[in-house]
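Sample intake sheet
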Amino acid sequence: MSSLTLAALLGVSGPAVAALNISATAAIDTGRLGEFVPIEFIVTNTDGFSRTGVQITMVYPANLVQAFEIYFDGDCPSTTCTEGETVTWTLGTVAADSAVSVTLPVFVSPGAADGATITFAPTVTDDTPDNDSASTSVIVDTNAAYDVGLAESRDPAIAGSQLTYRISYGYRADAAAVSLSTLRFPVPANTTFVSATGGGTLNAGNVDWVLGNLEPGDSGVREVTVQLDGSLNPADLVSASAELFANATPTENVISQANTVIGQAGGLALAVESNVNPSRPSELAHINLLVTNTDPFTQLGVTLEVYTPEDLEQIFETAFDGDCASTTCTAGETISFTLGDIPANGSVTVHIPPFVQNIATGGELISFLATVTDSLGRQARHTETLRVQTDTRYDLSIAENSDPATAGASLTYRLNFGYREDAGSVSNTLLRLPIPDNLTFSSATEGGSIVSGAVQWALGVLLPGDSGIREATFTLDGGLSAADVIAATAEISSVTDPGEAARAEASTVIAAQGGLQLAIENNPGPGRITELLNLDLTVSNTDVFPRFGVELIGIFPQDLTQLFETAFDGDCGSTTCTGGERVTFTLGQINAGQTVTLNMPPFIQNIATGGELINFFMTAQDDQGAQTRQLETVRVQSDSQYELTLHESSDPALAGTNLDYKLTYAYRIDAAAVSQSVLRMPLPDGTAFVSATGGGVLNAGAVEWQLGFLQPGDNGIREVTLALNGGLAAAAMVEANAEIFSTSLPIERARAEANTSIASTQPLSLAIETNPDAARLDELGELVFTVTNNDPFMRFGVELVGMFPQNYSQSFELYFDGDCGSTSCSTGETVTWQLGDIPAGDSKTVGMQVDVVPNQTGDALIPLFARATDDQGTQALRGDTMRIQPDTVYDVALNESADPATPGSTLVYDVTWGYRDDAAAVADTSLHLNLPDGVTFQSASDGGVLNGDAVEWGLGFLQPGNAGIRTATVTIDAGTSAGTVLEASADLHGGSTPDDGARAETNTVVRASAPLSLEITPVVFSAIDGRPIQSFIKVTNNDAFTRFGVTLQGRFPEHLTQYFESDPDFDGDCSSTSCTASERITWPVVDIPAGQSVTVSFAPSPSPTVDGRLINFLAWVEDDQGVQARAGESYPTGCIEELDVDCDGVAAGTDNCLVVPNTPQRDTDGDGFGNRCDADLNNDNIVDLNDLAIFRAAFLTTPADAAWNPDADLDGNDSVGLQDLAIVRQLFLLPPGPN
């Protein structure tokens, strides 16, 4: 407890007499044994001339641990300062009307007696006889219960301006409960009270807060704003204090002091923000320090010093840019940042990432004292206090959409909140964002409204593990100057227990337009425990000149599994990244109007807690010190019910064009049924609504879909087309997001994000095919990536990089052309394809087959992300999603007649569909073929009609096992540019259950010519167990010269028995002596002369499977110049009676035995009737005695016999026997056929 009065603690207050003065303050006036107590001395020169030879001396008092000289700027007779020794600070020259501060970082001795007074009595002198002395004291209190910290919003401050004091308080967890407590702030001399938060009231010159009953471990924050007298002069001090005491025993108290220097306009300013406040023991804290130069000239040789508080784990220098006495920073050490020169109106942000020690006590305060100094000794100071709470319930973060921001522009704050899963339910929760100075409120999401100068959201009842996002948009005052700082603070608290709260801060610098911009795209949101995250980090140069030496630096958060450097382009201190380590991306030069996107794929650890927030702090900077900052927050939810992805059709996109978004949603199979669901996508800034599929309507600036009642396992796809504003500048960012939520429980929701950069040209583009969609567990899927060069010149050194997603089994490198970190690709690894040089208007297509893991039980969506980059750093990005549906009943596949195709040519789409035999009958089924832009519809089979941009077939009532094929013919527009990719898709679903369907995609490249073409001709179009599905694969050289080194490859489908390389009709090669599912088949390399073709045969046999399933075969060809062609074929399993009456796999329109199974279509006499239904051996159109006589002559012969007659071998077994005779008897006196 403290026996000192406030008056005894305060130093100089108010206008000072012209002289050299010193003040002394203790951050707190009581200290426990071994506790860190920083002491600050401020020397002020209120004369009109400089003071030279200035120094401070002080006798080092008793009851302190020795202080090491390397930890502060003072000097003792030896390398340490001990009791009775004189400590000297040599300040040199102190300019007129200025101040200099120094800090003494001391620890109370563990052997100090309870109640002992430790007095600090510094004296300041210069090279004249003038001197001044001050004194402050700390009382040793071995069982101090209270903690308090006082910090001003700005130091130095400007006379006549407002100054806000923040008072942090805590009641230690090892204390006993106290009945009533009061927090008191005497209004300092030469100031006038303006306002106070948290119910503070002015009473007899004091602002008092009645805190009520404090429980051990409680903590909180209060603020008070005062008006500084305009008569204060530079170098005057405003002395303030705050006291926390027990009402019943006022001597049970603690006091904190703060002396604020009055300065002149301009100079350096310092702001410090903390997120994760309060912090739990062992939690990673984030301290951001922002230094701004508000002068119209460069500030030279700027340094920043921060004293390391106690109860933090040692901080390794490799984790940040600070420097300590050794390679780690420990309690009491000075952390030094050499900031160098800061241009006029410029700013620099640095970051400290400490962990709170696991021995820290709830209710304890951890204070960071920071001082920034320029080469002339001018200073700015700030203190940030972190509260420790062992059982925090709330998590909160606040992030602005742009930092720096531009005066007069809009600024949006995003608030992420969480209510931890290990907390009890809370009856009512409020989320508040006080409107920062110089901002005007524009709008807020989710019903946020203005209450007492703050945007407020009533969140209602939060259950453990709940989380959410709210946003508020403001307009920045147009009169703000460059280097001004907007300080925002958000708080979430319980209405019934206001002490249960969390707080987050954001400091935003004002800057001129242009410069670097940073955007972070985070998916999924929220993330489940052990789930793979995808973070896309995009740095844009919005200037008209290049930016050199660009780096992107961040802190790897806590509660993520270690990330191997081989999985992404970042660099950490070792080969892996762990919590608290610094991650660095070296971007190099970014040209004017260019963007660069990088990816991070971390996993959430299994020890993470639902309701927890994981914060990514990232800074991009160039070699001139220009910076941009961004915070992205991942919400953790252990039982999320919804999943959602959002993908755009092009990134980058061109201003003035349309941009399509694909929204894929799912309601997890392990969730409970939900009454009503809504899918919502707000229109991003810079866009206008064009159209939406699935009944989407524009409502209050957002596209909405009423999804109705969702059952566990339901999923679906919706699409929206937006028009991009023609005035969007190159390197601008279109930031889109979408949400799906329950109308009855809005807190239950999922969110997805997509950031799209604007470019003036689109040199590279990327398209992705994902088939099948949806996929069953343990089912193979095919991922196809097409990279196109849209430029009129060659693009060199093109590389395609993707992230191997979660929920796929490992994929072996020998099955495809990509490269992973080892011989197989597993979740989270980077997959790289070296595409080499791509000619103008050409493209490269690569793919890989993947296997959905068989034991996946809950996840319903597999998001895919890929990035193409050339040797100039030009990029194209794309994403897609594969749905997982364990009980999917529909299958659909989409294949085109030519890939590549040419402008003006005809293109035929084959849509093959199946309804699985293990499903129930379904009514009102429809099939849709969604035509791409750039084609004109010509015709469709089976009554298909064009409706908008889709061809529709009503399939009606389907029985289990049904399957079919539909075709549509289109003409490619004659003016289509080479390199255009025609992206088509097909959907099959029941009319009463539109979200229980299947989708297939195909992307067709348009080229000026097609030097090579590939065609798959099936002998049978359906698959039945044991009957080979023979197909002929023909490669044609359409050029006027020989094509060399032509290689044909294909993917061996699933649902086939292994195919041995030794089969006499098979020339292909697999990785072993037989081909199995997902293996790559390679046929020998050949040279094909002009106008010639090469045909190979492929005849594997189906394995037992359910009818209505599809067997999909994909083949591709490439020559030694990289010219490619591609083809696909799909085989329904079972009999398709509508097309194949005899179920032999041969379509009725071409079957030479229409009602008798005759798969080989053997017709030895060439009369159009297959042998199996043609015993008319003399071809007189009737089977009679004459034919019987011919048959008798060949009876019991084989091809080796002279009397052999192949026409008499009706069953095709190379012998004429009793089985053939039985067929003759069946056909006797009948005409051949029918065919």
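Comment: The first strand starts at residue 20 and ends at 26. The two ends are 107 Å apart (CA to CA).
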